Amino acid sequence: MTVTATSTPPPAAPKVSGGKGGHKRFSFPVILLIIAGGLLALSAVRAITGAQDVTSAGQISAALAMAVPIGLAGLGGLWSERAGVVNIGLEGMMILGTFFGAWAGWQTNPWIGVLAGVVGGMLGGLLHAFATVTFGVDHIISGIAINILALGFTTYFAKLWFNSGEAAAKGGSPKQSPPAEEITTVSVPGLSDWLHSIETHHWFFISDVAGILGGLVTNVSLLTLVAVALFIATFFVLWKTSFGLRLRSCGENPIASESLGVNVYFYKYIAVIASGGLAGLGGAFLSLVTSHIYNEGQTGGRGYIGLAAMIFGNWRPGGLAMGAGLFGFSDALQLRNGGESVHALLLLLVVMLAGLAGWKIYRKSYVPGVISAAIAAVVLVWYLGTDTVPTEFVSATPYIVTLLVLSLSAQRLRMPKADGMRYRKGQGK
């Protein structure tokens, strides 16, 4: 008697989120109302505390500059994870971008440096794809290995290339490169000055909006505009084209995708290499726009924060942009000696935690509600008993915000179903 071999059929295609049984997405008017509510809260905090820098054009301009590399790293993570590959190596790819961007930038021009930074990041992405897609190495292990390799590589070659000859004569050292030329910045003529004049009146809400808009249209680097264009292009490519549909299907159900004729390996490679290029671009931004030189340890964990921004944004470009803006804002506080501003924002945190506590108790989640209320009370006592925040706490603000945001948003997240899973060619046959 002949026994017919059977195999487990491919899993059914996953349901699309956003419909029945999925996570409900906010409509555009609701998003606008949330943004308006946030602006009103910031205006109230500024008016009550007198911390004028909270919504000043300078603060917003610095926040934008800090948000771009975080956002680009997160955008790289989005490409990779939408194809099913976890990319913990974003930090290492950013390090490669800072190094190669500065190395090429000081010798030629900053735009060649930007291209070199992208290529450096893509090499890191190619290595990650080779390990995870072709050889099936655990994604976390491969990413950590790339972070270690990138740090060791740049440390060694910085000593070799920046500490002798012409580089040393122009200010290079074992830990930094010679300075590169500045990338052009642009402002909107007339509008910048008009918004600044409104901001100086310190009117409630109106001056705050003027300060925020002023920071977005004054002395903006051309590379920032490129980053904005990449966010728009990512949404269009991944959600509005057949290429993007195939790529996302590899992150949701690669076995079903293969059975339909999709070359899963090809799309995973493209996504992870693009991921490295975007992270490398974020690194080049740090070395060519933020500081004009390469510095050892320059990324400061922004690759990991970019990954957190991507998770906060629920693996979508719009939410990622909001998360990057939030982390960039908190990062900018330490650059502007923001002890007074962080102290003022403690009051906003009290209101948010109190609101969260009320909501949890209303939904009969008593334990989280009580915990939120207790934390709100502690923060309120801290606010009332102090006039400023220690410098050490201000420096840690971006990382504290990262932990808070991830802990508060964890319940609404929906990652790609096959994200991080090992896939071998032929499973769909």
Give the structure's gist in a few sentences:
This protein is mainly α.
Topology diagram in text:
Layout (H helix, E strand, L loop, with lengths): L27 H22 L7 H26 L7 H18 L2 H25 L4 H23 L3 H5 L15 E2 L4 H9 L6 H12 L2 E2 H19 L1 H11 L1 H6 L4 H27 L11 H11 L4 H19 L3 H24 L3 H20 L5 H19 L20
Antiparallel strand pairs: 1-2
Helix pairs in contact: 1-15, 2-8, 2-9, 2-12, 2-13, 2-14, 3-4, 3-5, 3-12, 3-13, 4-5, 4-12, 7-8, 9-10, 13-14, 13-17, 14-17, 15-16
Task: Provide an overview of this structure.
With 429 residues, the chain is mostly helical. Helices cover 69% and strands 1% of the residues. The protein is built from 17 helices and two strands. It has helices at residues 28-49, 57-82, 90-107, 110-134, 139-161, 165-169, 191-199, 206-217, 222-240, 242-252, 254-259, 264-290, 302-312, 317-335, 339-362, 366-385, 391-409; strands spanning 185-186, 220-221. Strands 1-2 form a two-stranded antiparallel ribbon. Helix 4 packs antiparallel against helix 5, helix 14 (317-335) runs antiparallel to helix 17 and helix 15 (339-362) packs antiparallel against helix 16. The two termini are 25 Å apart. The model is unreliable at 1-22 (pLDDT under 50).
